[in-house]
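Friendly challenge for the regulars: who can give me the C-alpha cells for this chain first? No prize, just bragging rights.
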Amino acid sequence: MDTITVTGIKHTTHPKPEKQETTQKTAIQAISQGVQLAGIPSFTAIEKKRRWMLEHMAGAFRVFARKGFAEGMSGHISLRDPEHTDSFWTNP
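First reply, four minutes later:
Bragging rights claimed.
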C-alpha cells in the first residue's frame, strides 16, 4: 500500500490482487461459505459403512435433542440400511 499526495490531498493506493486460478465451481460450491467438510468416505466393507452410518445417526440424534427437536416429527431422522435396502433405521 502506498500513499501519494495530489494537490494537498492524501490518496492511498492498493496493490492489484494477484490473479487467482479460475476453477469451475458447482452451484452448491458457489453459494457455500466457510470450511468445506470432508464428506462421506468410501468403505471397503459393508460392515464398516453400516457402523459409520449408525455412529453418525446417533450423533445426529444427540444434536437434535440438544436443540429441542426430540418430540414427535420435529426430530425425525431416518436412513436406509446399506446392506438390506428394503429396511430403514429411524429414531424411536
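The helical segments are 27-31, 46-66. The chain has two helices and four strands. Your move, everyone else.
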